[in-house]
């Protein structure tokens, strides 16, 4: 009897879950080329260097190619922080350097109702993207570990200050104590969500916008 009860309940539960909101539009992702060796895969917060060609799905027109236009250099961006369209943030995860993907991106994850430049409103876009290089982004766990000098999984104000000092030095700026202290206060105001005086690993890598 109990089993019957649960079986009846399951479709109702599924209905509740799915009925609550419309399904999220998806990015269709096809792998065009996968390298034999893959040392690491992309994740949110990584910096990616890519070459890409973008086409309108409606008529196949190419609207941009990083190889043919501008300075013809590949472009850097950070994955998962909305620096690029949502469709890229979603469609370029778990990717190896050297890999090529074809993404089909619905308008809601691209330029939507407005369109942009050569892209008409409500356009589904097709991108062929080659990932050339992956680097640890400023929000990566690797960066966090580098800053967390005493390995207690939280950043104190002095650890953040030390990091700023080193970064300034590395970029050839003279260290400036008062300036660094003001920067640290600013950083903590924004990043220390629970106001305990430390930036935890979670606070550090947390994305404020849900993807
Ligand atoms: Ca620490
Ligand atoms: Ca905190």
UniProtKB/TrEMBL annotation:
Stretches assigned to the PPIase FKBP-type domain: 45-135
Domain EF-hand positions: 135-170, 179-211
One Pfam family of this chain: EF-hand_7
Enzyme class: isomerase
A GO molecular-function annotation: calcium ion binding
InterPro entries (UniProt xref): EF-hand-dom_pair, EF_Hand_1_Ca_BS, EF_hand_dom, PPIase_dom_sf, PPIase_FKBP, PPIase_FKBP_dom
The keyword Endoplasmic reticulum appears for this protein: yes
Binding partners and assembly: Monomer. Homodimer. Interacts with type III, type IV and type X collagens.
Name of the protein described by the UniProt record: peptidylprolyl isomerase
Protein species of origin: Ictalurus punctatus (Channel catfish)
């Amino acid at each position: 009897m109990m089993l019957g009860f649960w079986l009846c309940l399951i479709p109702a539960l599924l209905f509740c879950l799915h009925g609550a909101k419309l399904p999220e539009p998806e990015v269709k992702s096809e792998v065009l080329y996968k390298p034999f060796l893959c040392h690491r895969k992309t994740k949110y917060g990584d910096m990616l260097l890519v070459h890409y060609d973008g086409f309108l799905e409606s008529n196949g027109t190419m609207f941009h190619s990083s190889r043919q236009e501008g300075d013809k250099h590949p472009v850097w961006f950070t994955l998962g922080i909305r620096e690029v369209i949502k469709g890229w943030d979603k469609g370029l995860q778990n990717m190896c350097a050297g890999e090529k993907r074809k993404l089909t991106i619905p308008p809601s994850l691209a330029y939507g109702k407005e369109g942009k430049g050569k892209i008409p409103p409500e356009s589904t876009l097709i991108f062929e993207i080659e990932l050339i290089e992956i680097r640890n982004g400023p929000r990566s766990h690797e960066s966090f570990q580098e800053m967390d000098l005493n390995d207690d999984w939280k950043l104190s104000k002095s650890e953040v200050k030390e990091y700023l000092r080193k970064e300034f030095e590395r970029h050839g700026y003279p260290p400036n104590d008062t300036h660094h202290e003001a920067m640290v206060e600013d950083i903590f105001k924004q990043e220390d969500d629970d106001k305990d005086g430390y930036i935890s690993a979670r606070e550090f890598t947390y994305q404020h916008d849900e993807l």
